[in-house]
Write a structure and sequence with these properties.
heterodimer, A: alpha/beta, Peroxisomal Thiolase, Chain A, domain 1, 11-stranded mixed sheet, two-stranded antiparallel sheet, 11 helices, 15 strands, 31% helix, 24% strand, globular, B: alpha/beta, 6-stranded mixed sheet, 6 strands, 21% strand
Chain lengths: 378, 215
């Protein structure tokens, strides 16, 4: 990929388990984190798993999900003129189960009680199409589903659209709502922790899923925040993970630095993917140790909001920007002893108001991405 | 809207009323253990990539319905015995097919998975054209639907072909001279989500190798 001309981040909004942007920031500052739980069905038994859930439940059905996404998008577009909206593309990054498809499957696969299913040609992109229509955005919509890297990849694609002159603006939405099937899937893979995740800790025992909706408006207008570069690839050692040595992650981080035309020493701090799972954390910290020296400031945000899968790209970048806008990088909650003695995620919040930052996302199917963002000092 | 001219280097398509019988799997994936893990979309993708002589580089993959067979297995497992198969879960994500391609071909390049309903293959083409424009590289653009699941006849009202896929290797053309808009050369009975790419493949088969894509 050619060197990336920077694209600016003009606005961002989130809805996480801790509340809106302001509430989430306060929860992080005060370390008052709400971790709730959800029941899932496994082997005919109901099991209670920890889960970072919205305060007001969003039902696992289309209208409810649409309403929640709509509410967040409204905040982002409310100040935009009609003309500006028309030149704004909408890209959703999600690993949301396609509920239209679930309806279709349920209507046909079960051995009994079959019902006639009437297709309305909906798809997982239906949310984007409907939102674009309702808010008068450009008709160009796209839904990217590359699991945990979905909305991070959506940000890279949105940047491509803007810097190639196709659009003046693009909104990226990261969306993830509680899905019983997805939670059960992670549980059967033995990946769910029974407590708050402990990223990079020697005693980590898995991840905790969460739900979130996050929106980021990109464009060329002046802004203190910009996307300076990024690199995405697909390189897995198995269908679900990268190798423990982290070489796949090393490649992504190095190429993201190259794309931004900077070197590792230029990075002020790094936001890790850091799910809290045994293998991915090991791979990531090994990769970090191969790219950076041990003075690197790095942190993990999932203990605050959970692993929000497809939403994590947009959500975690928005939270990271919000904390720096408030003058600090949040500490990594619950990591008491790091996997690597020389590479320790920050145990106390660090003062920080500007700089160059790397944001990592390493997902299912070997989809990996690193983004480089910058906040100008004045 | 900006229009770019793309040059089609190679193309391929395949479809069948029920199951595509010969996907040349044994030659393409000699490792039996790996072959047995492949989903239907993965097998079709490997077949199309071989026909397009593509074994590595940037990929834009589109699917409206994703891995329907794996999703159906999961739904059935949950209802019949309350247990979710980890394998089906792993294989049910939208980007499963390009991920298997990456594993088998040791392709470490960028992969984007797009799902846009009945416009999936058009958006896949647009995204591929954009990727080609940005990177200056050739892109493998592929869209696949495999919906040959148990009892599909109960709900299928839209397609004659339960398995279908189309692919092109494209790059940005040097100029726009003689470039054609996408013509309506789809194959009747194939799902609408694939028709735009099928049309482009058919145009290429007719000797048209320069196409205009509106981004």
């Amino acid at each position: 990929m050619s060197k990336m001309a920077s694209v600016n981040i003009l606005n961002y909004e989130i809805h996480s388990a801790q509340g809106d942007l302001h509430q989430t920031l306060n929860a992080i500052k005060n370390e008052e984190i709400i971790l709730s739980s959800k029941f899932i069905k496994v082997d005919q038994k109901e099991i209670n798993i920890p889960f970072y859930a919205f305060e007001n439940e969003v039902q696992e059905e289309q209208e409810s999900i649409y309403g929640a996404i709509r509410e967040l998008l409204l905040k982002l577009v409310s100040g935009m003129s009609e003309k500006r909206r028309r030149s704004t593309a909408l890209i959703i990054g999600t690993s949301l189960v396609d509920l239209y498809l679930v309806d279709a499957i349920e209507a046909c696969v079960y051995e009994s009680e079959r019902t006639v299913y009437s297709s309305q040609k909906h798809s997982i992109d239906s949310y984007a199409k409907k939102l674009s229509n309702e808010f008068g955005l450009n008709e160009f919509t796209m839904t990217i589903n590359t699991a945990c890297t979905s909305s991070a990849n959506a940000m890279l694609e949105a940047s491509n659209l803007i810097r190639s002159g196709v659009f003046d603006y693009a909104i990226v939405l990261g969306v993830e709502i509680f899905s019983s099937i997805m939670s059960s899937g992670f549980y059967t893979m033995d990946l769910i922790s029974d407590r708050m995740p402990k990223p990079f800790d020697i005693n980590r025992n898995g991840l905790v899923l969460g739900e979130a909706i996050a929106g980021i408006l990109l464009g060329k207008d002046d802004s203190k925040w910009s996307i300076e570069g990024g690199f995405s690839n697909c390189n897995s050692s198995t269908i679900t993970s990268v190798g423990k040595g982290g070489d796949e992650c090393v490649e992504v981080m190095q190429k993201a630095l190259e794309d931004a035309n900077i070197v590792a020493e230029d990075i002020t701090a790094l936001k890790a993917h850091a799910t809290g799972s045994e293998s991915n954390d090991l791979a990531e910290i090994n990769a970090i140790s191969k790219v950076f020296d041990d003075t690197l400031i790095f942190t993990a945000l999932k203990p605050y909001v959970g692993h929000t899968i497809g939403a994590s790209g947009a959500l975690e970048i928005a939270i990271f920007m919000a904390t720096i806008d408030n003058g600090f990088i949040p500490k990594t909650l619950s990591c008491t002893e790091s996997i690597l003695a020389d590479y320790i995620p920050i145990s106390e919040s660090k003062e920080c108001k500007s700089g160059l930052f790397m944001c990592n996302y390493f997902g299912f199917g070997g989809n990996n991405i690193s983004l480089i963002i910058k906040k100008a000092s004045s | 809207m900006k229009k770019v001219a793309i040059k089609i280097i190679n193309s391929a398509k395949i479809y069948a009323p029920e199951k595509i019988e010969d996907l040349d799997e044994k030659r393409l994936v000699p490792n039996m253990m790996m072959r047995r893990r492949l989903t239907r979309n993965s097998k079709v993708m490997l077949y199309l990539s071989d026909k397009c002589k593509f074994d590595g580089g940037k990929i834009v993959y589109g699917t409206c319905y994703s891995e329907l067979e794996e999703a159906a297995k999961m739904a059935n497992d949950v209802v019949t015995n309350g247990t979710l198969s980890p394998t089906s879960f792993q294989n049910s994500v939208y980007n499963t097919a390009p991920s298997y391609f990456s594993l088998i071909n040791k392709d470490k390049d960028e992969i984007i998975t797009v799902s846009s309903g009945m416009k999936t293959s058009l958006d896949t083409l647009k995204t591929a054209a954009l990727q080609a424009l940005i990177s200056g590289e050739s892109i493998f653009c592929v869209a696949i639907e495999c919906i040959n699941i148990k009892n599909i006849d109960e709900i299928n009202r839209c397609t004659k072909y339960l398995e279908a896929g189309a692919a092109v290797v494209l790059e940005i053309a040097n100029d726009e001279s003689n470039a054609k808009e996408i013509e309506d050369l789809g194959v009747s009975g194939i799902m609408d989500s694939l028709q735009d790419l099928i049309s482009v493949v058919n145009m290429h088969e007719q000797g048209i190798d320069k196409i205009l894509i509106e981004l």
